């Protein structure tokens, strides 16, 4: 049984999501919406504080949303790289003021609304859950390629 199957059987488990944004109204609205969807939410306006949350392996972060541009030395791109070190198969969601591609496979959203961020997070968490769940196909039902 893999980790996701164990989580599915344990109905008390909440995936932890770290959200980092310098706009307190955006941050609070997103945090409320995610809590209503049964996420354990850690919200911060500081890249440095978010970095410490990501490094706390006693309370691991399952998903990350961050604003790309933040004051201080640690921005959203650095947070996404740190997140990627512990979750190489998962994409962080990063909000930017201008469209930009991510060579690391992160989901980059141009100046998104909270609703767009929620839809994006719902999509990547569901997609990851499906990709981690073993197929129910029996060996004799797998199509053969000639």
From TrEMBL:
Keywords: DNA-binding
GO molecular function: DNA binding
InterPro entries registered for this protein in UniProt: CheY-like_superfamily, Sig_transdc_resp-reg_receiver
Annotated ranges, domain Response regulatory: 16-146
Keyword Cytoplasm: no
Pfam family, one: Response_reg
One GO process term, biological-process aspect: phosphorelay signal transduction system
Protein name: Response regulator with CheY-like receiver, AAA-type ATPase, and DNA-binding domains
Upper lineage: Bacteria, Pseudomonadati, Pseudomonadota, Alphaproteobacteria, Hyphomicrobiales
């Amino acid at each position: 049984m893999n980790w996701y199957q164990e989580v599915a059987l344990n109905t008390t488990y909440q995936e932890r999501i770290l959200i980092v944004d310098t706009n307190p109204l955006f941050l609070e609205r997103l945090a409320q919406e995610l809590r209503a969807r049964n996420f354990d939410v850690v919200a911060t306006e500081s890249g440095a504080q978010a970095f410490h949350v990501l490094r706390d392996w006693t309370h691991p972060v399952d998903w990350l949303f961050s604003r790309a541009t933040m004051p201080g030395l640690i921005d959203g791109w650095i947070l996404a790289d740190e997140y990627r070190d512990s979750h190489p198969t998962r994409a962080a969601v990063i909000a930017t003021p201008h469209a930009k591609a991510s060579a690391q496979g992160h989901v980059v959203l141009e100046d998104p609304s909270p609703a767009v961020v929620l839809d994006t997070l719902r999509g990547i968490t569901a997609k990851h859950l499906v990709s981690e769940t073993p197929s129910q196909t029996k060996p004799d039902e797998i199509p053969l390629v000639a």
